[in-house]
Amino acid sequence: MKWLNHKTLFLLILSLLVVGVNGQQGNYVNQRKALENQRKELVKKIQDTKKVLEETRKKQNKTLADLQVISRQIENREKVINTVADEIAMLEKQIVEQQVIISNLRDDITRLKQDYGKSLLGAYKQRNVYDKVMFVFAAQSFNQAIKRIQYLNQLGDFRKHQAELILHTQQQIIQELNEIIAAKREKQGLIVLKESEKKELEVDKKEESAVLVKLQEREKELRRTLAENERAARKLNDAIADLIQKEIAAARKKEEESRKREGTTNPKTTAGVTKPKTTEANKPKTASGDMYLTPEAQRLSNDFESNKNALPWPVERGTLAERFGTHAHPTLKGVMINNNGVDIQTQPGSPVRSVFKGTVKSIFSIPGMGKIVLISHGKYYTAYAKLASVNVKEGQSVDTRETIGNVLTNDDDETEVHFEIWKVQEKQNPELWLKN
Predict the structure, then answer these.
(1) How many independent structural domains does the chain possess?
(2) Tell me: the pLDDT tens digits for 18-55?
(3) Do 151 and 202 belong to one domain?
(4) Cα 38 from Cα 43, distance rounded (Å)
(5) Is the model's pLDDT at 284 over the cut of 50?
(6) Burial bucket for residue 435 (CB in 10 Å: 0-12, 13-18, 19+)
(7) CATH assignment at residue 350
(8) Is 239 in contact with 366 (CB distance < 8 Å)?
(9) Can you give the pLDDT at residue 400?
(10) pLDDT bracket for residue 181 (50, 70, 90)
(11) Residues 231 and 125 in one domain
(12) Are the C-beta atoms of residues 345 and 52 closer than 8 Å to each other?
């Protein structure tokens, strides 16, 4: 019985080893899947940017936006190369570990076959049924006879489990070998992709250098353009801030009028008791961020917030030309530029769409910014500038991804949408809200 317990323990340990191996392989699969999805997203961005670059390469005079698009393409290619390198490293680690697993499994199956052979030999020597019967009847007590019967049954089950485990281990070895072959093929494909991206990266870097040189030769023109863009951006900022402030004031006035009407129509709360007069000191406080929102507007604000990092882009295909915030000018040394939103370069004539359901609050124009549409989403606002045409009206409700106009191509052949997100009077980074 002691010998049988040792064998049972061995089988249990081997079974746990197989379960552990499968768990580790599952972790590898999940990690590789995440890297693969990341790579596919980056490749999609590269493909979208390629279409924009095709338009850029047709131009005689390159612009700052063209340089920024090329820079984004280089950035995405470098990310793809790094992601592919991570995938290759993970596959190499997986292949090594699978080879170790196969070696261990082969050792295990050798031991199993040896033990199984000894077990069969013992069974052959004791093949006479009469011997088994005598083994039971030779017991010195009834309890001992029962234990001997149990022992014989366990011995038979043990041999059966041995055969099953040998077969399972053989199948595990075949599966691991097939996975190694598949991993090596995938690794080879990734190596080819990595080398291809490296070659494309060199081409992009050469193009970036050439465009940079041409732009630096036009420093005076760039400074003039920068000044014009800054004036247009300030006008847009002031216009949006003023519109939001007016809406807050209108909402506040409406709320105060509603409270006055309630005070007039319902002066008493209980018999003989006059309702206290509402004053500035005791009236309910409402934060400026709440803007006296109706329940519907508050729900819309909550819905907008819950879609952070998941909002669709304002154009179906495009590439980020300029990021949010303050950063160094790419060609003018010592010059800082500030962007209240993001600029997305796209193809001429592309439709511009609302990133979330809401209400069109204002449509206006600013020189250098084209036509602008401001959409309210509760206490959030989205602004779409540099539009050539608009096909919505003020007060109109729009849905997510509904077309609101078409992108403008300016005199420098730049085709881009300027997009901003405001939370009341606080400017947001659109990159943190749009789906990556």
Answers:
(1) 2
(2) 555 555 556 767 777 888 787 878 777 777 777 777 76
(3) yes
(4) 9
(5) no
(6) exposed
(7) 2.70.70.10
(8) yes
(9) 96
(10) confident
(11) no
(12) yes
| Contact residues for 251 (Cβ-Cβ < 8 A; gap 6+) | 291, 292, 293
Within this chain, do residues 203 and 314 fall inside the same structural domain, yes or no?
no
Range of the domain at 174: 2-216
Q: Are residues 251 and 337 in the same domain?
A: yes
Stretch (H or E) spanning 34: helix 2-58
Token output for 198: 């490296």
Q: Are 149 and 136 in contact (CB under 8 A)?
A: yes
The span from the CA of 372 to the CA of 388, in Å, is 9
Task: Classify each residue of 230-259 as buried b or exposed e, where b means 16 or more C-beta atoms within 10 Å of its C-beta.
Answer: eebbeebbebbeebbeebbeebeeebeeee
Nearest by Cα to 343 from 220, 232, 205, 201: 232
SS3 label, residue 300: helix
Q: pTM surpassing 0.85? A: no
pLDDT digits over 337-350, tens only? Answer: 899 999 999 989 99
Same domain as 332, residue 247: yes
pLDDT of residue 388: 95
SS3 assignment for 55-121: HHHHCCCCCHHHHHHHHHHHHHHHHHHHHHHHHHHHHHHHHHHHHHHHHHHHHHHHHHHHHHHHHHH
Distance CA 419, CA 340 (A): 9
User: How many Cβ atoms are within 10 Å of 376's Cβ, its own excluded?
Assistant: 21
Interatomic CA distance for residues 236 and 132, integer angstroms: 98
Query: Which one of 158, 184, 216 terminates a domain?
Result: 216
